[in-house]
Amino acid sequence: MKKFNYLQQIADAGVVAVLRGDSPEEVVAMSEQAIAGGVKVIEITLTVPFALEAITQLAKRYSSKDVIAANYALIGAGTILDPESARAAMLAGAEFIVAPCLNKATVQLCNRYRVPIMPGVMTIQEVQTALELGVDVMKLFPGNLYEPSIIPTIRGPLPQANLMPTGGVNLNNLKDWIKAGAFAVGIGSDLTKEAVKNKDFSLIAKKANEYRNAFLQAKKDLK
Is 139 a catalytic residue? Predict the structure, then answer.
């Protein structure tokens, strides 16, 4: 059941912070600010040097076992290209795995350990293949190649597909993606670029809070 609890936490959070940086210390600081701002699902990409150190540090600090706790967060690993990287990330403390593309061996390994995996897909064929492999949520990537209408288009023939657009999602169009049926959305550079430019990571907390509120309002508007 742990796997499905994690998936439910991602769906409830609605926004996944996709964090990249020049060091583990930098992405840990970014993560702390995102969590403080209300975005409590954190994806640390393995393009970060010594990314596993950051994942371990965050996983120890923020326990997802008690979602009521103020310091709870769900920590995952992104840019996973192969099963070896996925297993290393799990052992470092990652509670979910995100990949830029669909790799059968990686999906099989994650299923073996009952860890949620969200592989990147672009085509109907990839979505169907992912479903056949037992994938619960697919990352629609790069999201900036599509309009939100792509989700109901895909879910016409494949209504069981859960899609998380990543790339190109912003505060202006988040509501459109949620209205279109997105499972959640991934937010990367738009969350951190201003903070990095101004060397003020507190701006990440402010932006994260704006994203969290935008998601809650979008869900409210659906009712």
Answer: yes
